[in-house]
Amino acid sequence: xxxxxxxxxxxxxxxxxxxxxxxxxxxxxxxxxxxxxxxxxxxxxxxxxxxxxxxxxxxxxxxxxxxxxxxxxxxxxxxxxxxxxxxxxxxxxxxxxxxxxxxxxxxxxxxxxxxxxxxxxxxxxxxxxxxxxxxxxxxxxxxxxxxxxxxxxxxxxxxxxxxxxxxxxxxxxxxxxxxxxxxxxxxxxxx
Length: 191
Prior knowledge:
- The chain is an alpha+beta fold.
- Among the domains are: 58-135, 2-Layer Sandwich (wza like fold); 139-190, no CATH class.
- The protein is 28% helix and 20% strand.
- The strands form five sheets. A three-stranded antiparallel beta sheet has the order 4-1-7.
């Protein structure tokens, strides 16, 4: 009886050992940037990308003038469901107090700031206004074999792929580092 239990125990341990050896992942498969030498230096050509404002974006618009009262008056903010800011509606319009409806969809942040500045000057609302525009609803979604899948807010409007992966808790040991899909929205298209 003891001999039979010993054989079953040995057989059970053999199967466990075989399973462990079969599912091992090498450290080479887990490491990133395997094909880059440690002493290599890469020149990065930084390309200034301008984000195009889209429908349903939430914008932070700050207007500064020399008159503190006018500045406070112009910076009253609408409250949207996603926080405080100005929602670009389905028609691409953003409604700004004292200025009115402004077509924002399809413009860059700088173009919209210039347009708001022009409207302030044309309507004689403010002298020498300084306008800044930020997209505060900027976010990415990371799904799959990562530590924390989900939606990640990006306050700087710019994120690299390694930063996005790190924000999601990195790939798990089961994640296939050679099979990653990046989907980007460009206007009405998904690329």
